[in-house]
Amino acid sequence: MTPNDTELITLLKAGDTAGALALLAARPLAARERDASGVSPLMWSLYLRQGEVSEALRAALPELDVFEAVSTGDAARVATLLSADRSLARARSGDGFTALHFAAFFSRPELAASLLAAGADPAAVADNPMRVQPLHSAAAARSLETCRVLLESGAPPDAAQHQGWTALMSAAQHGLEPLVDLLLAHGARLDVRAGDGRTAAELATAAGHHELAARLTPPSVA
């Protein structure tokens, strides 16, 4: 176990779900312990897609914070929290994300809309080396509807995360034509280059999406 992790989080990171469930059964209060940054075991289990452990952790917690509620899709809890304190729409998790980042990453378009209505920033930059905005998170999750909600609320289509990566580049690399269409409709540029110099068209070509690459090639170099 590292100095920054609890015993339960160490088991989760190791992929030992059986050990995590056994520990939780023996010591339910372990669900409330957090790592040195303040990230909960529930959030770690969600990051790691450990569904059985996530359900056990939810059952062991008396209530969820806004990040946990958004990530698990607990709309009633989110509404209660925002009603009591709208500033939670802009609050930061221990690892530097807003609740809107989690709504995007876990494909919760309805909750993304609720957070935006409460004052969430569609262009919030994660306070960590990833430097992602919610649109990057939604594109990574391949959540077309969440991307639509964000773009219609003013999320910048060409915002760059770490290494200059944009949502259009992500969509191009994975051949997500509906998402490409949506981003282009909201003004995404074809000539933006990632930190390694590649454009969305070049990323599509490298991934074998040749027809899409042709569409994404700027006219000046077509």
Automatic annotation (TrEMBL):
Pfam family, one: Ank_2
Ranges of the ANK repeats in the UniProt entry: 95-127, 130-162, 163-195
Statement: the UniProt record of this protein carries the keyword Repeat: yes
Sorted UniProt keywords: ANK repeat, Repeat
Record InterPro entries: Ank_Repeat/CDKN_Inhibitor (IPR050776), Ankyrin_rpt (IPR002110), Ankyrin_rpt-contain_sf (IPR036770)
SUPFAM superfamilies: Ankyrin repeat (SSF48403)
Keyword Mitochondrion: no
Protein name (database record): Ankyrin repeat domain-containing protein
Species annotation: Eiseniibacteriota bacterium
